[in-house]
Amino acid sequence: MSCLGNYCIKQMKPSPIIFVSLGPGNPELMTLGCYHQLQQADVIFCPSTANKEGEFTSKAAEIITAVGIETEKLYKFHVPMQRKREAALAAYKECADEIAAMHKKGLKITVAVEGDISIYASTQTIAEYLEDAGLTVEMTAGIPSFIAAAAAMTHPLVMGTGSLIVATDIEQIRHNIERGLQHGSSIVCMKIKSYENEIKEYLSAPGSYECFYYEFLGMGDKEFTTSDKSEIMARSFPYFSSMIIYNPYQSEHNR
């Protein structure tokens, strides 16, 4: 509070920049907390990527407009999809600078994140840039794709004394499989496009565990799921694909 003579003015604390986790793709799986944050925002930053035809699309923007948020709030920023991260890092830094400039004008800013901000979200880099600049960042939790996948396969991810493992390369998966998956344990295999041949080699081996493959989960007609290993072997994995390898839980009742 600052005072001048007999007059005092209460200084308003700047609003934090909110990172909103939209969930796996189905607008109905967005949490109420995320929806309310989007409603209250002045500007919503949405990542966009280029498809094979060179057209820019934003799944985040599609999810947001599907729940009735005004398109006028949306501010799309392009994220290069390349193995080398230099271009993406430059795009995130530019985005962080734009957010900081708008925030300085007193606007309430949210940044949309597909899935959940805490699980392999590349936009986490933007949050780090903002915090380095001395700005306050808050995050709203969302439903990650593998939680939605567990519901789709109608099988628990983890039960009893089992473990839940999240892996991003074939060596992590092999290590945990060689140790032996306990009953009720699962391995969530993320980013499987980058080791597609190796995961298919594992699935073709005798004695491999049960699995559930999913791509474009929650994305309407593009969604595909299967537990049939022959169907998985025949597919070319897109970027938005993952798999759950699991050892079914055997309860005392079923033994």
UniProtKB/TrEMBL annotation:
Homodimer. One of its GO terms (biological process) is cobalamin biosynthetic process. It is an enzyme of class 2 (transferase). It comes from Porphyromonas macacae. Belongs to the precorrin methyltransferase family. One of its GO terms (molecular function) is cobalt-factor II C20-methyltransferase activity. This is Cobalt-precorrin-2 C(20)-methyltransferase. The lineage of its organism: Bacteria, Pseudomonadati, Bacteroidota, Bacteroidia, Bacteroidales. Keywords: Cobalamin biosynthesis, Methyltransferase, S-adenosyl-L-methionine, Transferase. Its EC number is 2.1.1.151. It catalyses: Co-precorrin-2 + S-adenosyl-L-methionine = Co-precorrin-3 + S-adenosyl-L-homocysteine + H(+). Residues 17-226 form the Tetrapyrrole methylase domain. Pathway: Cofactor biosynthesis; adenosylcobalamin biosynthesis.
